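Quick log. Single chain, no ligands specified.
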Amino acid sequence: MFEDLTDIFFDLDHTLWDFETNSALTFEKILARNRVRVELDTFLDIYSPINFEMWKCYREQKIGQEELRYQRLKRTFDALDMDVADVLIHRLSQEYIEQLPKHAHLLPNALEVLDYLKPKYNLHIITNGFQEVQSRKLKGSGIDRYFDILINSEMAGAKKPDPRIFRLALEMAKADPGRSLMVGDNLQADILGAKQLGMQTIHFNSNGEAGHDFCKIIHDLIEIKSLI
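-> predicted structure:
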């Protein structure tokens, strides 16, 4: 189905790195350490959709990095009707960034698929995540050895789906877009963004997004082995 490939670009969070599990473990630690009295599941039920929406605003350049980090916590505590001082919100925000990459859970079959692909293709990462965090996630989970380059939105001065980040990734990898494949979990950012540059795409639908006809959809990374 995918022919003449030389380079495969992966998104990181929700695609290879198990963001939900690692984030939950991080909050469990920092909320307890700061004596924030809230049930973890209750907190995450509110926080997760707010965080998703804040990242959407960040991709669309409606908010900046610091506002994203603050607002996702502020809005969560407000929704929980908890009076949490700004100084504590900022402390939690900083501790979250520091602690998150220390957790190393990957999504099912990530290592098996990377082991399968590495001898055959050049592998790379394209991420909207923060530069200070993403490289530590790769190293902490032991998958940095699989990838030749890591491109993030801060390096590119643009966030997926902006074509500039994909163009920079292709230039740095010295890759032909027509012989390159993007694998990611977000239809708008990863799939439609990559298709603008003429890249082939696989949508790893780990977030339960609606079906579509833009490209092949998979629900488990192991399916890649039967496609490539």
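The longest helix spans residues 40-59.
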